[in-house]
């Protein structure tokens, strides 16, 4: 009798040690259930108080053949465990053995006496049809360990849900900033914290996905909790940060001290994570976050080939020179069918959503579906609809894409950017003797690009390439633009290899300080500049 008792204690000690080892394993709940299934000979499962199967054992890698290994038997056993758990809850008992008449007995133990996690009732450990009907001590020991593991896994799932909700909320705030909805973005930021800065530099950090959390924590510490950090919704290896300028959040301009602070943050990141590449924009108000993001992307293209692995945007060659009353009228007329579009169904996208889709498509191409959180087939259907409305091939033609891109820029330009017409005279003019002449027709794209300001702008676009030499690089850029930004077609037209053409475009990115091969790309501006110079 004493020998048997000693052997039982030794077996129990071995079981407790096995449970402790399994508790430290990944997916410990499933691992413990699988161990219990092998140890007892019956199916071990975790059942919620309402009869929902919360966890089942991992599939045995080498199950022994037998009558109880089929999927029908598994479903039947889980159903029996669920019914028994509901009955035990109705009785209010912490443990019991139910069934056994015409079927297999179900051994149940409640995991804890209070709320398990998140205010919910604790689940039940159920073992259906064990070989040893006197396994109560084993199940009691397993229930204590399993309860702790279940609470830890529930807490981890809750943490991930909160983290995912916060990431999506931050992403929504960034999206609102990109489309100019600053008040709505500020409301979201005010709820999440920190508040959005009035002025900010945009950092785009290209890094391994596994290091994004570490880099975000580093930026947050350096910025003293005032940076707004968002994982890029389009590229999983990008991290976007809006960092306020100055030590106290006050604008510090572009002086040496501020430049050193910006370089210091970028240098600190690349020192800790050598795989990183960082592009930074100039300071921008919140309403110009989209422009800051584009600048940071262009700077990132330079940083990929820079020895320091980071770069700032240094060339301000935007489309301000093309903004004029005539340009606004042309853009309004071109986008008019889209602005006046009435969707046939209430669930279909309206004018503003179509313009947002167009902007996302021109910025991210095929990745716009991830930016807009829509299916790629939905994106393709919208692009076809927008192209039909505008009368442009925005799917594959660089000419159509560049025209739509310029129209969007002119349409969304701040009112103060354009030249305003002269103020009307204070005295009413005399009544004309002849009928009033009709309003002038809107200018064409060629007329807009033929103005003196547009010609200066076009020369500024290609100036650095033409001055840097050799001529093969600007020739490759021009051939690439004529080929609708398709690299294989450009390489064929030049009679060079595809890697050679890609290398020349990478060199052009360094000279221009702009991104060409990765979106958002400067290809639309360069195509317009090429058309303005008459080189198409």
Automatic annotation (TrEMBL):
Q: What is this protein called?
A: Helix-turn-helix domain-containing protein
Name of one Pfam family that matches: HTH_30
UniProt biased composition (Pro residues): 422-441
Q: Transmembrane region positions?
A: none
Which Gene3D superfamilies does the UniProt entry name for this protein?
Answer: PucR C-terminal helix-turn-helix domain
This protein's source sits in the domain of life called Bacteria
What InterPro entries does the database record attribute to this sequence?
A: CdaR-like_regulators (IPR051448), PucR_C-HTH_dom (IPR025736), PucR_C-HTH_sf (IPR042070)
Q: Where does the record place the region Disordered?
A: 48-71, 415-444
Residue ranges occupied by any PucR C-terminal helix-turn-helix domain in the UniProt entry: 354-409, 475-532
